[in-house]
Amino acid sequence: MPMLTIKPSGKTVEAEAGMSLLAAILAAGESIAHKCESKAECGSCHIYVTEGRKTLSKIQRLENEKLDSIVGVSSNSRLACQALLGTENVTVELLSFV
Ligand code: FES
């Protein structure tokens, strides 16, 4: 089972492969915006993945298009609702400017 570490709180929780980062972050009791309910439309669930990017599901067209339209996107950016956990540990950073 992958472990998910959430910054800035530093909380680490066990998650399940195939679960979205958004679901895992919410299950950990952290708050994260998700205004469009996982449709890759709002961009409010934008986060940085600082470790374990390669274990996540690949970025699909809808996520890519949305990320292109968001301010503050970096090479670590993902939409938490679109990125699915793999088998390895992941560290994410929640952003406060969305
Ligand atoms: S919840 Fe809207 S893009 Fe992820």
Automatic annotation (TrEMBL):
Q: Which CDD domains does the annotation name?
A: fer2
- Entry keyword Nucleotide-binding: no
- Which SUPFAM superfamilies does the entry link to? 2Fe-2S ferredoxin-like
Q: Which Pfam families does this UniProt record tie to the protein?
A: Fer2
Q: Needs which cofactor?
A: [2Fe-2S] cluster
* Keywords carried by this UniProt record: 2Fe-2S, Iron, Iron-sulfur, Metal-binding
UniProt-recorded Gene Ontology molecular function terms: 2 iron, 2 sulfur cluster binding; electron transfer activity; metal ion binding
* GO BP: P450-containing electron transport chain
| Annotated InterPro entries | 2Fe-2S_ferredoxin-like_sf (IPR036010), 2Fe-2S_ferredoxin-type (IPR001041), Adrenodoxin-like (IPR001055), Beta-grasp_dom_sf (IPR012675)
* 2Fe-2S ferredoxin-type domain residues: 2-98
- PANTHER family in UniProt: FERREDOXIN-2, MITOCHONDRIAL, FERREDOXIN/ADRENODOXIN
User: What family does this belong to?
Assistant: Belongs to the adrenodoxin/putidaredoxin family.
Indicate what this protein is called per its UniProt record: Ferredoxin, 2Fe-2S type, ISC system
Gene symbol here is fdx_1
